[in-house]
Amino acid sequence: MKLKEIGSRLLACAMATAFVFTGSIANVSAAGPQSAGTANYAMEEGAASREAQGGQDPFAKITASCYDRSVTLEPTKTRTVFRLPSSLKLNEDVTITYTSSDESIAKVDANGVVTAQKKVGYALITTTVKAAYDGFEMEYQTLVKVNHDITKVKVSANATSLAKGKNATITVTPTAAMKNAGYTVKYTASGAVGVSKGKVTAKKSGAGKAMVKISSAGKTITKKISFNVGEITGVSDKSVLKIGKSVTLKVKGLSGSVKWSLDKKGKKLASISKAGKITGKKKGVAKVTAKVKVGKKTVTLTQNVKIAK
What we know:
Blueprint: H1 3-11, E1 19-29, E2 32-43, H2 50-53, E3 70-73, E4 78-80, E5 94-100, E6 106-108, E7 113-116, E8 121-131, E9 137-146, E10 154-157, E11 161-163, E12 167-173, H3 176-181, E13 184-191, E14 193-196, E15 199-202, E16 206-216, E17 219-233, E18 240-242, E19 246-248, E20 250-252, E21 257-262, H4 266-269, E22 270-272, E23 277-280, E24 284-294, E25 297-308
């Protein structure tokens, strides 16, 4: 039976002795609605119906549209859950008090404004309306759910295909609710990359992942970004290419078309084919560049080649 229906029935009865109604209502914890409990509504001994005495029945004017049965709020957001009809005057016809079952989830002020806290969960807001005419009280309850959808947070990197030794930056774009509630970010990495405070470093050729763990208002989400790291193989900083000899260079770790070239000085020291075959001509150090087309972006790899007799 609805509370307003119970109130109407009680008020319709002339009573000579004390009457107490016991009805079932929901109890809640931060985790959510739990088992049912009981609430008592009492009419003072000797009170008769308002209609019989010519008094105003304020509860007949408080309809279902005057209060919210349940609401969902994001952290720090506010909502007025009870609205007194314009035909009733506060402190003349009725007085109103508000309480919260869990102020760590949702607080309510003296004006009935509910504020969601920076913690997800459930709280029960109880609005107690007391008639000025005879002191009869009714309770109207609103289940408040504080929820936080952090799945909408955006995580991106300015580059996911890298040359060995180069860096990328991860950017976390929080939602407005996350900014209000506060959030933390932790980074970890595996494979070919390392990460510190959002800065990704390409350590070796191959595939790698950066894990971004974001926490806000009691909720946590982990987002992953995949990286590919490339390098030139066939020679190294320690190897020597002898004059007159050749070696075919390759790109490891990245897939795409490759364009090979030598720097201005290197063109005097060696030659390189479209297939990456380099031939030593004179003593010195030539800088080889491989431009790898990966999707719509180009990744530039470089390698010094020492040429000697």
